[in-house]
Structure formats: structure tokens, C-alpha cells
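This follows on from our talk about sequence and fold. Can you supply me with one protein entry, sequence and fold together? Could you add the entry underneath, on a fresh line?
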Amino acid sequence: MITDIKLFLMSMGLSEKEAELYLCSLRMGPQTVSTLSSKTGIARSTVGFVFGELISKGIASKQDRLNATYFSVVPPELLESVLLQRQAEIKKQISDFKELLPVLAGLQNRQLVPKVKYYQGLESLYRTIDDCCAKDESVFFISSHGNMHPKIREYIERVYIPKSKKHISKNKMILSDSKLSRDYVKKAQGIYDEVIFVDPVKNPFKLTVAIHGDLVDFISYDPGDLSGVVIENHLIAEHMKVVFNVLKSYFSAGRS
């Protein structure tokens, strides 16, 4: 239990020694540096320094009595104010960051930005899904839902669908026909203005291709190979949109 409390205090922004001394002081009440050092095994000079940090954070105080200085910490119920202060600081940092983001983006050397990114694993592939619904723009998909990792499917339904339903722009999809695919399209109603189902035997799609903006994603959501490549290139993206439209015309003519 003490370990859990210590970890929680550290998650609040306290260092390991700050958390340890807070708990020790909480149990013992006001004590001198020597006593706290003896109880925790932390060097006296370090105890004094750490309590200085705790005092600056509003978590501790000191009091001079005769020829000695006693240190103590605030009661647990007052720690809430520390959390609220951190919350306010984080909120301000986010606000400041949003204001600075355009400036930082302007400083970025575009020549050094990688044009090809590689992704591996579930968490990494979640980011490619986020990118597909980050902007209100049409996304062109060529996909098979039959061999999709269940956690990817759950993330699409929990994150991608709700975000995309807020967009005005509609997406388009060429999709391997299956019960899973048709169930997905029902859940994603309103996101796509064109969905073409194709025969998975004649057209065994293995990857999901997503074309949006200047990006082209080639992603494997297969449980045995969770990986992908994203290419950022205007000409390639425009070319792939043409390929999508050619395939759409082909399959729309009943050649699926």
C-alpha cells in the first residue's frame, strides 16, 4: 500500500525522495533534518535540499524552535490544491502551445521532414486511423475488413466513426464484401457517400489503402503483420486518387 501511495505522489510531480520524505514526515510529524535523515537513510544535506523543494511546492513548511529547525508537511486533504494547481498550469501550457504552434510550424525546415513514415504495432497504427479523421476532408479507401485485428476494429468504431460523423466532407470506399464489411458500413452510416463492395475471391485485398490530402497510407491491419507505410507526396496522392476512380468505374460496371 505504501508503495502505491508513493507512486501516486510521484505521479503528482514529486520526485522519489520528495515522496519518501513526505510520507515519513506525515507519519512522524515535525522533525529535524537529523531525525528525518536517520529514519529514511537519506543524507542530511539531501533532506534539507528536498524539503526546500517541497516548501517551494507548497507541500511542506519549516519552523525554528530554540536552536533547531523542524520540518513538517501539509495534511493529505490539502494535496488536492496541488493537483488543482497542476491542472491549471497544464491548461495554461496547452493554451500557450496552441498559440505558439503556428510559429513553431513556420520555423520547421520542410526539407528535413521525412516524406515516408513506417508504422509497427497497434499503438502506432492507431495514429494512422487518427490521421484519417483529423481533418474535414474526403478520404478514399480501398480495404478489406475480413482480416482486421479486433482491437483495430474496436478503435475504428470507438474513435474514427464518431469523429468522422462530425465532418461535412464524405468519404469513399472500395471494400471487400463480407458480413463484417456490411456491418461496418451500417455502423458508419453518414460517413461515406460511395461504397462499392467487391468479390473478395476475385479481388483478395490484403491491405487498407487510404488516400487523403497529400498522404497515401498502405496499412496492414492483419493480426499477424501490424505494420504500414505512409507516403507524403502530392503527385503520388493525386495519382492514387486517379487509380481509385479507375477502380471505382471498373467495379461500378459490374466487374467485381
Q: What stands out?
A: Residues 134 and 163 are 8 Å apart (CA to CA). The beta strands are 60-65, 68-73, 116-120, 140-143, 171-176, 192-198, 208-212, 215-222, 225-232. The longest helix spans residues 79-107.
